[in-house]
Amino acid sequence: MLVFELAIILLASKVAGDISIKLGQPGVLGKLLIGIVLGPSVLGLISNTEILKELSEIGVILLMFLAGLETDLDELRRKGKAATLAGVGGIILPFAAGYLAGSWIGLGMYESIFLGLLLSATSVSISVQSLREMNKLKTDEGTTILGAAIIDDVLVVLLLAFVMGMAGSEAVSFTDVLVKKVLFFAGAILVAWKVVPWVMRFLGGLRTSEAVISAALIICFSYAYVSDLFGVATIIGAYIAGVAISMTPMKHEVYEKTETISYSFFVPVFFTSIGVTAEFIGIGDHWGIAIVLSVVAVLAKLFGSGFGAMLAGFDLRSSLRIGTGMISRGEVALIIASIGLQANLLAPWMFTVTVVVVLVTTLVTPPLLKVFFRDRPDEANRQPA
Question: How far is CA 56 from CA 14, 117, 226, 233, in A?
């Protein structure tokens, strides 16, 4: 029964998060691991149902909306060059490594290209939560990671359209996809500038309970929906909505109330559901490939995005922090993998391997961030930028 499963998820995620923190790790790591334990791979107490997926989607949307509310827009602009180089670097090296790995395990040319594209994806939601727990989201590195993830998402979607069209798996026009992305971002920025403040004033002024937070959530979900219509990840739309509202006088009220809604229910469901999706049926004969691809996936993002950050002027330690923040593939890679499975660009066994790789990259990100973001003596008393 759904309500009982939700009770188990909330209880288990809070306890697991607390244990993880006591062990010196980010709380999100415990929430991810407990999802595996509760899911079909271990105890089978929680099923990966459609309604759980929908609740999880709301969780990640709200998480990225909060990240947008916390973003300093001026700082984001200043880190534009670094974010671009880190985002592009986080695509070039994983793409090349994925293609070579695909050729090594005997995949065809298009399948190897698709694997490279899959490893180029980034889901920054796990990094956002880990950085928030460590109070590092507003640092130079945190801001760069957020910007790089947006650039990464846009470029990967464009490349996906190109690869699908080239492989002949479906009628996809690269030009059409590019135009849709340009239209979305132009429209999203225009609405954020001219429309969002008016909507917040109008709806927030209604004489009804919690009008301000309701107005903010309407904007958040509308942005997420429209971004999905234009082929951009819902989390990007939610992030832009958060940035838009952060420029209004209602920012602090919206943040406080959204945080309560999110972390009491939706965000724990999201983190736990990632572990619940893990199914290892059929992986027995391919563990070696899964391990190799997991290592490749972690190192390629770490050094690809890290090198891009170094080119932008970050020192080695900060560059590794940025590279680490880009490692998690999360739900973005799972969506791309599902597309590849439907288009016959991923064999069923390879899809299972991919799920394991995505899970590994998601699990290693929080502890690695904890290691690389540990303050040096000269940073101990420095406030986040």
Answer: 16, 25, 19, 14
What is the DSSP code string of 113-131? HHHHHHHH---THHHHHHH
* CA pair distance 130, 136, nearest whole angstrom: 9
Three-state DSSP class for 262? helix
- Residues 294 and 360: their CA atoms lie apart, in Å, by 6
Q: Is the pLDDT of residue 192 over 70?
A: yes
Residue 96 and residue 227: Cα distance in Å, rounded? 28
CA distance 142 to 134: 11
User: What is the full DSSP assignment across 340-383?
Assistant: HHHTTSS-HHHHHHHHHHHHHHHHHHHHHHHHHTSPPTTTTTPP
pTM (predicted TM-score)? 0.83
DSSP code per residue over 266-330: IHHHHHHHHHHT---TT-GGGHHHHHHHHHHHHHHHHHHHHHHHHHTT--HHHHHHHHHHT---H
Cβ neighbours of residue 252 closer than 8 Å, sequence gap 6 or more: none
Number of H helices, E strands in the chain: 18, 0
Q: How far is CA 283 from CA 196, 255, 279, 298, 357, in A?
A: 48, 42, 9, 20, 11
Q: Which domains does the chain have, with CATH numbers?
A: 2-372 (1.20.1530.20)
Encode pLDDT of 21-78 as tens digits. 898 888 888 988 998 899 887 888 888 888 998 999 999 999 999 999 988 888 888 8
Note whether 177 and 231 are within 8 A (CB).
Answer: yes
DSSP tag of 263: I
Looking from the CA of 327 toward its CB, the CA atoms found within 13 Å total 31
The backbone region for 109, taken as left when phi is positive above 0, alpha when psi lies in -120 to 50, beta otherwise, is alpha
How many other CB atoms are found less than 10 A from the CB of residue 350?
A: 23
What is the number of other CB atoms lying within 10 angstroms of the CB of residue 339?
A: 17
Gap between the Cα atoms of 38 and 28, Å rounded = 15
- In the block, residue with structure tokens 């660009």: 345
